[in-house]
Amino acid sequence: MHDILLELNREVGVQGILVVAPDGVIIDAALKVVLPQDLVAAVASEAVLNLKKKLQQLQIEKFSCFAIESSFGKIIFMDAGIAYLVAVLEKGINLDTTMIAIEGAVHRIKSAVQIKV
Amino acid sequence: MGLFDFFKQRKELKKLEGDVRDNPSPLAVATLGEKYLMLNKNDQARTVTAQALKDYPCSERIANLYQQIMKTCFQDKILWLHKEIERNANAGGYFRLAQLYYKEMGDLDKSLDILRDGINRFPDEEDLHLLNGQIRLERFHLEGFLSSDGLKAMEHLRRVIELNNLNYKALLLMIKLMVEIEAFAEAWKFMEIVRRFAPDDEAIARLAGKLKEQSQTTINEVELELLFKAVEERGDISSQAKDLSSFYKVDPTGLLSLNITVNQEKLNNLIKNFNETEGFKAAANFSPAGETLFRIVKPGQPLDRRGAVSEAPPFLQKGRDGAEPPDPETLIEVLKGIYQVAQDSSRKMDFGRLSKGFLLSPLGRLNFFRVGNFTVVCLFALTTKPEVIKSEIDWLLDMMSME
Questions:
Q1: Residues of A with CB under 8 A from a CB of B
Q2: A58 and B348 in contact by Cβ < 8 A?
Q3: What is the C-alpha to C-alpha distance for residues B30 and A30, in angstroms, rounded to an integer?
Q4: In terms of Cα–Cα distance, which of A45, A82, A43, A76 is closest to A62?
Q5: What is the pLDDT of residue A113?
Q6: Residue of chain B whose Cα is closest to the Cα of A73
Q7: By C-alpha distance, which of B313, B350, B85 is closest to A75?
Q8: C or N: which end of chain B has fewer Cβ atoms within 10 Å?
Q9: H or E element: which one contains B159?
């Protein structure tokens, strides 16, 4: 799985990739040096947990994609089956193009997990 | 370019200029600006977009185009400075490059990146810390008074004063910041320094007179952090602090200095138009403090046929026994909770204020975006095409940008 993350991390504008379990535990990560690893892991984990908590108020257990665009950066959370793939992106990148690369990585993670099972 | 192409381009340009003159809108101006840029008419592109920034301060399209134009205009200078840093790294090179991004392009993020690199190499360089503190202070003012920005501004300004306690600008910025968060005792400490070497400074003398009573109690680091947090939670500085801190006006960068005032009633009326879009479910407008200012919930939620039925909550599953639609209060609270998760993540990552985002879940397609200080959230069925929602949101933002 780590190879998939490293590959995605090489895409233009991608600052870092994490795989977060639904309970907030970080399974794997590949971050560029500019990102503080502990902080990103904590934010990603907390966001997944809090978002699921909010959705559970309406009896919803999962979400497929959550995208945040801010003044100085972007974060994407995508359902990858057993976990969520979290991508931290530069503010200026075209989200549509990068989304395709992220979706590709998600498919590869899903099939890698199925093969292992 | 051949003669035929030349006349074709000129005709197109005349048409676009006519559109802007007769029927001005952010879209028309952006199309004209892009055309100028394509034809290498950079000065015209810059002029028309700079004016549009003032006319349509809410328009993201215009803001992005302006940054693109400025980058094109300064491309050679940027390249030259990058090469100079690579060839012979020096603090002055980092400073000039960071200042170019900051002052000319309003790209605070890029400027902070350059300063971070520069400070790593030259940790005792006063100018780099001062510019960093100044940009963080500007972000503090523009991005909803985030404590992370305020604390960083304080850290860098403190470092400047450590390196040179006669740095007048750093001292004034520090006093201003401390007054804004109502850390008057801390402000007093820096005012004393200024008064020692500039006893004739009338603005500082006046401020000292006003703060004398409130400057006796000492304040520790934890309390300072709490004061920053309190301002962040309020989303603004108090009117007393505003009044006191006006002793020193900070000139923000051209691009980001525009005050966006939003007509709340107009915004609410425009949100009502979402109701006309197929698949619309709910929308709301929230204040910076998270208060619901306006909401609209369509009764009788239909099943999201494209979503997995088994994953959909009971209220979305038509005909299911006991399936009750959610009460609007709960639904709106959840929508608010979702955008607040996005907002918190953005702040903790030091990404500044949330501008927009979306969530795809069995609940539907939820979009949220900022208009001035307000946050609008709208929920559509999963069957509604994303481009339809995008064009609705763009239309609302364009309408908000126009008088």
A1: 34, 39-40, 42-44, 46-47, 50-51, 54-55, 57-75, 88, 91
A2: no
A3: 38
A4: A82
A5: 66
A6: B351
A7: B350
A8: C
A9: helix B147-163
Q: How far apart are CA B63 and CA B106, in angstroms?
A: 10
Domain covering A2-116 in this structure, CATH number: 3.30.450.30
Residues of A in contact with B326 (CB under 8 A): 58
Nearest-by-Cβ selection for A64 from B108, B326, B360: B360
Rg (CA), chain B: 25
Strand A73-79 to A26-31 pairing: unpaired
ipTM of the complex: 0.91
Q: What is the SS3 assignment for A18?
A: strand
Query: Is B341 in contact with A56 (CB distance < 8 Å)?
Result: no
Measured in angstroms, the CA of B192 and the nearest CA of chain A are apart by: 36
Average pLDDT over chain B, rounded to an integer: 85
Q: Do B361 and A43 touch (CB under 8 A)?
A: no
| Helix (H) or strand (E) run with residue B98 in it | helix B91-99
Taking the domains of chain A in order of start, what are their residue ranges?
2-116
In the three-class reduction of DSSP (H, G, I as helix; E, B as strand; rest coil), residue B279 is classed as coil
Residue B263 or residue A77, greater confidence: A77
| Contacts with B114 from chain A: Cβ below 8 Å | none
Name, of A91-95, B193-197, B305-309, the range with top average pLDDT: B193-197
Is pLDDT at B309 greater than 60 in this prediction? Answer: no
More confident call, B321 vs B81: B81
Work out the minimum CA distance from A77 to partner chain B, whole angstroms. Answer: 9
- Flag whether residue B158 sits within 8 Å of chain A, measured between CB atoms: no
Distance (Å) from the alpha carbon of A7 to chain B's nearest alpha carbon: 23
DSSP structure string for A99-116: HHHHHHHHHHHHHHHHHH
- The whole model's pTM is what? 0.71
Task: Specify the pLDDT at position B306.
Answer: 41
Cβ-based neighbours of A95, under 8 Å, separated by 6 or more = A67, A69, A74, A76, A89
Model confidence over B364-401: pLDDT tens digits? 999 999 888 789 999 999 999 999 999 999 889 888 87
Q: Does B144 touch chain A (CB under 8 A)?
A: no
Does B317 touch chain A if contact means CB atoms closer than 8 Å? no
Give me the residues of B, 352-391, that contact A with CB < 8 A. Answer: 352-363
Nearest to A73 among B315, B349, B359 (CB): B349
pLDDT above 60: residue B319: no
Residues in contact with A33: Cβ distance below 8 Å, sequence separation at least 6, in sequence order: none
DSSP string of B112-158, one letter each residue: HHHHHHHHHH-TT-HHHHHHHHHHHHHHHHHTT--HHHHHHHHHHHH
Contact B361 A88 (CB under 8 A): no
Is B213 a residue whose pLDDT tops 80?
no
Residue B318 has pLDDT above 50, yes or no: no
